[in-house]
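Entry 14. Ran structure prediction on the chain below.
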Amino acid sequence: MKNEVVAVKIRGILPANSGCAVFIGNDEKVFVINVEPQMGQVIGMFLRDAPKERPLTHDLMASVFKGFNITVERVVITDLKNSTYFARLILQQQNELQTARKIVEIDARPSDCLALAAAQKRPIFVTAALMEQVEDMSEILDRINEGESGEAE
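Output, structure tokens:
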């Protein structure tokens, strides 16, 4: 990507009125992406390395990636338009002889990107322009962590 990016982490996941609030950020700024309730649970399970009886969709994707020698390199949350976040999944495929690699960028929902990044312990980035644009929710996350210790990840 040509844009400058900022490294971030998932700082917390909390139930919200219409789904789950996923707090994303670094030491300087935190913002919220609202996701469907089930996606919030899935991301939380991956963050906690919770055991699952059967593979989830993101586990299936990881197995397919492994079968084709593809790794998730990173995810980048790129933009916010009309209250909708956009993201890119950056994949790398190595050939069988390990002599060549192919990088592929895929448009994906941020929730899927965050789930895959959490499942495979891969880095998460936000474009610098987006980081400047979003409202800082650090104080709210701090208050939640103080008042409800254990709820935020």
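The chain has a mean pLDDT of 90. Will compare against last week's run tomorrow.
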